[in-house]
Each structure stands twice: as structure tokens, then as C-alpha cells.
Amino acid sequence: MYQETCCTCETVFSMTDEIHEKRLNDHKLFYCPKGHSMHYAGKSKAEKLQEEVNNLRREIRETHSIAEMNLKRWIHEERRRTGYQGLVKKLQKQIAELKQALS
Ligand SMILES: [Zn+2]
Question: Ligand 1 centre from 14 Cα, in Å?
């Protein structure tokens, strides 16, 4: 059993742990024996954990997105580097041919 104190008349009353857990999660109204209504406004443990899971999922998505962007940049730079190497080889070959033609 869970003991609660009415926020209006300060009467102490009990509810089952199951009902207490339900009201923590669903934030529905419940009543003291004198009929005053109240509800739990704060986030429940389940809601806090869900929020944490959502934040972690968002972080994973962002990290994945950054990693993917960096991989694309690396591939682009690698292709440029390979392209320049090909150009250098081509120019070296032309220079060698010209030297041979002039000698
Ligand atoms: Zn009350």
C-alpha cells in the first residue's frame, strides 16, 4: 500500500501500489476520502526512461549522419587524389616523350 497526503486538506490516505503506479504514469485525477481531486504532474520513472531512450536514439541518428557525411567527404577526396595521381602520371609520360623526341 502507498500512503498519500491530500494536497488540499492534508488527510493521509492509502491506495494500492498498483493504483499509485498507474496514476504516476497516466496522470489521471484521484481523490482523497473527503473528495478533493489531485493528480501527479511530474514525469514518472517510465516517462523519464522513455525520454532518455528517445534522446539516445536521436544522438545515435545524429552520430550516424555525421559519420556518413564524413565517409562521403573522404570518398570524394580519395577520388580527387586518385584523379590527380593519374594526371601527374600522364604529364610525366608526356614529358618523358618530349625529352626523348628532343634528344
Ligand atoms: Zn482532501
Answer: 12
